[in-house]
Design brief:
single chain, alpha+beta, twelve-stranded mixed β-sheet, six-stranded antiparallel β-sheet, 9 helices, 19% helix, elongated, disordered N terminus
Length: 410
């Protein structure tokens, strides 16, 4: 049997311990102080910092499911953009579905000012799809059987200066993977008030300040419908968070961002509201573009409408608010429209928008009647045609000062 000898120092220490134990009684040890509770990641912050801290706690959950509605109300009718999807905060990925519901009686001019509404007809039963990752923005319109892939800042054939590619990249957020939600602008809050809720959560009433809401809406509304909000603008905001400090809902009254007056494209819109809800924390990984789906590089597929030749077929769903851009389509497959003609407009200088429009109307009536019946016969609205006319900038840029005449085919 092996024995183990204790070091001499250990024996001395043991003897000293025994001697101490035999002496007078030592005072009782004080009980250890209870350990302090860890600081709450949101509720322990200064009050004004808590809304933004809640965003950080939300992102710490790694992923979530969201639903956001943007509601524009006119007299007797609403136009509502609903976006639903999943956000992967950690991986920089997102997927979503987005679609408009435009109520009967909503002003036609206002609907056209909402950039992602189909400018030609109100398609309330169709939904577009979006998949975003760190390299690509993938968009599938409500009527297409393919995805458009915008890669980095690669310029498009129809946009050599790269503005459209930058617009496509605006789908990426800076705070979360998908732009356009209220999560993007929670850093711009002020005048925070807090209310404790029975379930341990909190409700915050605050205000979004400056140009934050206007900037958020630029992806939805043409500039002509937005007010020039200054740095002092205030938009009331209410946010609810759960007991862990994660955001469950945010809503704001964005009416002050809508331009008023006769010159505004949204002059008949009386109010605008945005509401966002989140749930599914930690169990909401976004999907990807299915491997079997058709994907077109947007750099080649997206072109200018006014650059399309007579007889060409196009789709209108690009995922961008720029309605001058279309997708080249094969005429043998379903498509949104067919170009009838590109008639030259008269004038040594730009005649003005009203005069250019009048010329375009006259020229396109003739073009419609002269076009092959095989083209006009596929129109969905019998006897109807559409046209565009050049802006002053188009007139200066293009050597051909032409209108574009076309029909809708689905």
């Amino acid at each position: 049997m092996r024995t183990r000898t204790a070091p001499a120092g250990a024996a001395v220490a043991l003897g000293a311990l025994l001697l101490t134990a035999c002496g007078p009684s030592a005072p009782a040890a004080k009980p250890a102080a209870p350990s302090a509770s860890p600081a709450h990641p949101v509720f322990s912050k200064p009050l004004d910092a808590r809304p933004y801290a809640a965003l950080g706690q939300t992102k710490a959950a790694k992923n979530a499911t969201f639903t956001q509605t943007v509601t524009f109300s006119a007299k007797g009718a609403d136009a509502v953009l609903k976006t639903t999807g999943k956000l992967d905060f950690e991986g920089g990925r997102a997927d979503g579905s987005l679609g408009w519901n435009v109520g009967e009686g909503f002003p036609e001019g206002a609907a056209k000012a909402l950039g992602t509404v189909d400018a030609h007809r109100k398609r309330n039963d169709r939904v577009a799809r979006l998949v975003v990752d760190r390299q690509n923005v993938n968009y599938r319109s409500a009527t297409a059987d393919y995805w458009l892939r915008y890669t980095g800042t690669t310029p498009l054939t129809g946009d050599p200066y790269g503005y459209a590619a930058l617009a496509a990249n605006d789908w990426r957020g800076t705070q979360v993977p998908l732009n356009g939600t209220l999560l993007e602008i929670l850093a711009a809050t002020a005048e925070v008030k807090e209310e404790a809720l029975p379930d341990g959560g909190r409700r915050y009433r605050t205000a979004l300040v400056g140009r934050s809401v206007t900037q958020l809406l630029r992806g939805i509304v043409h500039d002509g419908g937005l007010a020039e909000a200054g740095n002092t603008a205030r938009y009331p905001l209410t946010m609810t968070v759960d007991r862990d400090g994660r955001i469950t809902s945010v809503e704001t009254d964005a009416s002050a961002a809508v331009a008023k007056g006769d010159q505004s494209e949204l002059a008949q819109v009386q109010s605008a509201r945005i509401k966002l809800t989140l749930d599914g924390y930690g169990s909401s990984a976004p999907g990807a573009v299915p491997a079997a789906d058709k994907v077109l590089p947007a750099a080649d597929a997206v072109v200018q409408l006014r650059g399309s030749k007579a007889g060409a077929c196009v789709d209108f769903g690009t995922g961008l608010t720029d309605t001058s851009l279309v997708v080249k389509a094969e005429c043998g497959h379903p498509h949104d429209g067919r170009i009838l003609a590109r008639p030259e407009l008269q004038g040594s200088g730009y005649p003005g928008s009203a005069a250019a429009k009048k010329q375009a109307d006259t020229e396109c009536k003739t073009a419609f009647h002269d076009a092959p019946s095989a083209w006009t016969g596929e129109g969905v609205d019998e006897g109807a045609f559409w046209y565009t006319w050049p802006s002053e900038g188009d007139w200066k840029r293009d050597s051909q000062h032409a209108a574009t005449c076309y029909i809708l085919t689905r």
